[in-house]
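Lay summary. Proteins are chains of building blocks that fold into shapes, and those shapes determine what they do. In this project we predict the shape from the chain. Here is one chain we studied, written as its sequence of building blocks.
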Amino acid sequence: MAVRPRDDRDGFYGDGQGDDPRRGGADAPAERRIDRIRAADVIAEGVRGAEPHEIPGRLCTVAVKLLPVAGASVSLRSDGMPIQLSASDDHAAHLAEVQATLGDGPCMYAAEIGAPVLASDLTDGPDARRWPVFAHEATSLGVCAVYSVPLGNDAVCVGTLDLYRDTPGELTEREVRTALLVASVMTIALMALPRQAENGPPGGDEPWLSGLAADHDEVYQAIGMIMAQLGVDSDEALARLRARAFAQNRTALEVARDIVMHRKRFDRD
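And here is the predicted shape, written in a compact code that computers can read:
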């Protein structure tokens, strides 16, 4: 399901259930503040001493600590395919590449509408029927639920924080608020990154954002080559790249690298 943004006075997104302070319990203002403080302490500890280029990965790890999820990844929104920025582990990184290859799923939809999308059961039910191909691929990789939170603000979505769970289940309102807090810190960290911080770790071969762009450039270089080989436009070329990757059970980036290295080509039918 998609969770629509609430009034800014709430400070978090929610579905409107249990948000009235008069209800008391876990959603009372005092307890919300305590939740924020606890989560903020874990976030601060998780990023303490980190270089700017390490912060996205650190925050993915923090999300796994704070929430009932097995992995997390963060991707920047881009024309055509999202750019994976970091992940909590290799498995989460691969899941992000799979979704970018398919071009469909909760994470893509969250970036499109600029609101959280909580696919709590990819094994059966509405979520599995809404994204059948993605659901099949995700569950085959051991992921039964995906929660995607946009990065940015009400006007602009710059990417998504994507959370992966190995069992079906919904996030509580408290957990949704925590996910949004992590996403908010992630957005601030990315937006506040000074240009000189792009130099990455000492001795690195290239800036950390430029390194990510190099992978992205390989995809677009491959798209250009497919356009020339088949005489099609860029949308069709990207669709062909994704279809080839899906048919071969590979990611679009892997197939793009083969095309750029002239190990594969597309021939006219």
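What the prediction tells us: Strands lie at 71-76, 83-87, 117-119, 145-152, 157-165.
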